[in-house]
Write a structure and sequence with these properties.
The complex is a heterotrimer of chains A (306), B (541) and C (341).
Chain A: H1 2-29, H2 43-52, H3 59-71, H4 86-121, H5 126-137, H6 143-157, H7 169-199, H8 202-209, H9 214-227, H10 234-251, H11 257-266, H12 270-298
Helix pairs in contact in A: 1-3, 1-12, 4-5, 4-7, 4-10, 4-12, 5-7, 6-7, 6-10, 7-9, 7-10, 10-11, 10-12, 11-12
Chain B: H1 4-19, H2 26-30, E1 34-38, H3 53-61, E2 67-69, E3 75-77, E4 80-85, E5 91-96, H4 110-121, H5 139-144, E6 155-159, E7 162-166, H6 174-178, H7 188-194, E8 211-214, E9 223-227, E10 241-246, H8 250-258, E11 264-266, H9 269-275, E12 281-294, H10 305-313, H11 317-324, E13 329-331, H12 350-354, H13 364-378, E14 383-390, H14 393-407, E15 412-419, H15 421-429, E16 435-441, H16 448-451, H17 468-478, H18 485-501, E17 506-517, E18 521-522, E19 525-526, E20 533-534, E21 539-540
Helix pairs in contact in B: 10-13, 17-18
Chain C: H1 2-6, H2 20-24, H3 34-44, H4 46-64, H5 71-74, E1 98-101, E2 104-107, H6 108-111, H7 131-167, H8 169-183, H9 187-197, H10 202-229, H11 232-239, H12 244-280, H13 292-302, H14 308-335
Antiparallel strand pairs in C: 1-2
Helix pairs in contact in C: 3-14, 4-7, 4-14, 7-8, 7-10, 7-12, 7-13, 9-10, 10-12, 12-13, 12-14, 13-14
Amino acid sequence: MFKYVMKRLGIIVFTLILIISATFFLMKLMPGSPLANAERLSGDQQRLIEAQYGLDKPLLVQYWNYLVNALHLDFGTSFQFQGQPVSTLIAQRIGPSAQLGIQAIVFGVIAGIGLGAAAAVRRNTKTDTALSILAVLGISVPSFVVAALLQYYIGLKLDWLPIAGWEGFAYTILPTIALGLQPLAISARFIRTEMVEVMGSDYIELARAKGLSRSEIVWKHALRNSLIPLVTLIGPMAVNLMTGSIVIEQIFTIPGIGSQFVNSILTNDYPVIMGTTIVYSMMLMVVLLITDVVYGLIDPRIRLAD
Amino acid sequence: MKKLTKNIALLSAGLATAGALGTVSADAAKYKTIRWSQSDILSSMDPSKTTTNIDFTAITATGDGLYRANQKGDFVLSAADSVEESEDGLTNTFKLKPDLKWSNGDPLTAHDFVYGWQRTNDPKTASQYAYLYSGINNADAIQKGDEKDLSKLGVKALDDQTLQVELEKPMPQLKSILANAPFFPQNEKFVKHAGKKYGTAAKYTLSSGPYKMKKWSGSSDTYTLVKNKNYYDADVVKTPKIKMATVKEQNTGYNLYKSNKLDYTTLSPEQVKKAKNTKAYRTIPEATTAYLQLNEKKVKAFKNTKVRQAFSYAIDRETFADKILTGSATPAKTFTATKLVKDPNTGKDFAKSAAVKGVNTYNLKKAQKLLKQGMKEAGVKKIKVQMLTDDTSGAKRSAQFVQSQYEKLDGVKVTIKTVPFKQRINLSEKRDFDMVVSLWGADYADPSTFLDLYKSDSSFNEGGWKNEEYDQLLDDAANKNVNDPKARFKDLTKAEQILDKEAGLVPLYYRSQAALQRTSIKHMVTNTSGASFDWKWAYKK
Amino acid sequence: MAEQATGLTAEGFDFIPMDRAMTAEKIDRPALSFRQDAWRRLKKNKGALVSFWILIIVFLFAFLSVPYANPKTTSHQDVMQQNLPPKLPGNIPGLRGETVVDGEKIDAYADAGLPKDVYHPFGTDEFGRDLFKRVLYGTRVSLEVALIAALIDLVIGITFGMISGWMGGRVDLVMQRIIEIVSSIPNLVVFVLLILIMKPGMFSIALGIALTSWVTMARLVRADVLSAKEQDYISAARTLGSSSWWIGLKHLLPNMSSTIIVQLMFTIPSAIFFEALLSYMGLGIPVPMASLGTLLNDGQKVFQFYPYQLIIPAIVLSVIMIAFNLLGDGLRDAFDPRTRD
């Protein structure tokens, strides 16, 4: 196990280097200067600014410096936020995004398990169809539509929950629901398929033959065994959440990393774009690694190759 | 889950009254917290390094210049008590108000102005607004690096309370620019102590204005302004606290306003249609003009005056402003925006008195006729051009309407290219476009802030239109007639009219901001150049 | 008892034909090819079947409406007819072109001073453009983007997966690492970087989507190739001296078709969905073109005032998404011999 994790960490570092290199050179291709009023700056001022950001050095030197610094989590200083290190900017904003992401996964997975299990138990009935459609709805209406509707009806019309902002748990509920619909749909469908398969397997037949009650079979045997592979879905879910959070953060005015990313694109703030990209990838790879390790730990059938 | 927030709100309100029993000052009870919203995030509180309008507003709330725009929009002395102007208009001697203080209690002296100004002009600071200093002695030379000695800048502290400003040439816009953030004093000790972090978070800011900055991490979406007791004019400042939120989605802002969580929100055209009959509705002029630049270097036909005129006559600006951009635009007949400055010759708004009748209006027949003649003269059969614009929803809206207007012209085919703001700027700079929708906001209250852009040697003249008479008139306005406002405005009026008649560019609309602002807020000041809002006198009952 | 047994006569017996072994083992189901079998099972799945026909109808509407809903007609503006609610001939509730102003129902069409015979079944947008045409056109554009993306996805995914699975060894190892790397970059980030450099448009959006989604296809194809490689018919083909390319094309590809088809049923809707999300960020299909995503995004901005501008494209999108998903599920079950009933 230890060897496996070390090997995976090695791959992560290697991948990071590739990603850093790719984003670095892509940024160099991007049109547009990050400076405001660039036309009104004298040649000297422009040169000084470039020197401040290390842009006066040869490309390869710039690249090497960036790579070395980036591996130490130093992504330079923002163009837009004068004098602010990118790592500080990201650190200040990662909290709300992470909290929202975790809440959305927890909510989505739990609700999804419930829906999926209910559908599987009543397989091929109207309830099953209704639940399936409900689950698919979660991935057929874009989150920005769901978010806007929730905000308007639950926030404004019914006045049950705050419309927008980030000042306490109540403020996180609507965004969590909007963001959690996709994990909900994914896990509900997954659990249903798995459980239908498990319910038809021999050991469930055996349990039935032993005279175990229906609920006992469903909860103790079928569901439990269906849950294990669900862990593998957390990775792809995390990817979707990162995308979704950009929209949700904007609509609910959440001070997270997603809205920052959009902002940095609009203002050509290269250091922030690069920093965010790298942090996003890093988080994703760590999540993938953790899910693989957890999966190996809880499912004895899987043995992680050393 | 029901009524969750309400309960929480009630609970905290109960706690607050219990805890603060008897300690609430009369002021705080009388004047409520103002809850404002901004459409983008605050990026810097360093007066030398600021780059956006949003920054200007926050810095103006926490700072004070020699002048400040008052509630009528006139620039009146603020930190300065009096000013003496030399006969040639090149030397201004300001006497500061006595006992000015920084928010930390330090005395605020003329040296703080000198330091702030020198810091902004120092090429090492790389201030992106230093160009506003152009005209002040040696400012250009210092910024270019030709003059290394910062003390040669035309500003001197004769004593702690006297500031002398020397100019290379008369600057009609002087009062207006002195009220802007890059001309505010800076506390040398504080700035040096904060070092690189100066202006990057609330604790690295020092106030010389009506409010102090609180709860701002440098990248947070919200910040709070609280009254600065050390401000010389603190007696007039009534509001104890202003809370700012960044709201990028207009639907969110509208919902927050309706549920009484915000006191101010900007409106989209559809929201305007619903809200314009309410008392809280207002439009805030911005002295910003949206205009089309026609690239004469890239599209041969645009060299022809008739073709350019046709492109102006083809646009129904009334419908554009009323139906499409509802609330956020008025039809533009001139390049210089309205509500910027009054013409001393007529006493009327410059843009209105300079507008030429029948120019920059909608006349499809005339457009078609001119286009036909123009294309013949230019020897082209078809004009196929790409219109460059921003990728915001507002810009897309405008572009689609303009495109549909040109669809009606025979022989013209317009396609749209949308790019992020900074890319549009960059492509415009490189003259890499056929036609571009540009916006220009006034730097100061004078027509030259617009008209100078289209001098033939100006780097902002991206269309490439040239007219010798135009250049000459602007040259006269800047030099020969600079001390004679009437003659100067005659030159400027004539220049504006030449630009409009020749269709050197195609003005589309003057931008304004449609908004809902709670009627309980009084004495809010809005400016068309520099800081958009000033809360110095504002209060909410 | 014995007498009774002898009651059997010669007439009671039949001649057994020569091929009796066949009859003995005769399966009571008709002999079906794999595809026929799958189709038969698909037909039993009502949800999937309905979805199948819905999709056929959507495609027909979207692609046959070109003369009616094309870039020219859908970008035609008439500001007089701004934001009109849906109206159809006949007095159908909800489609009378009525709007509520200050608690009173008024005829928005009459209010705009339009003649009686003006109808917009889905209403109009802020420019007075007919939304029925725009939804048809937008659906077509969305489907086109998704199909192009699926095609690119298919080509890259299959090629990559087949080479990786077939070659095995070091090649496979390296190619697996590449897949790992690609899938650990957030797709939105890749997409945004790509779109910022390329010219915005239908193809670049489709390419962006495909570049971020081919990994799943490659993985599935590789797994299929790995299991097929061990099977006798492949070894037989090899022994007979067929080239790798020939085996890949002639034997492997047809056998993987079910995996590929099922995967496509999920790629297409997710591409449509992703495009919608990009529209929200202003990175979707450029104006004045429309896609379901841009229509939804425009609708979302005004839904408090003109709810139909959001609801209609939302329903169309949801129906397409649900249909693809149910059909995909149905196909997967149908292709999977284990679920044979």
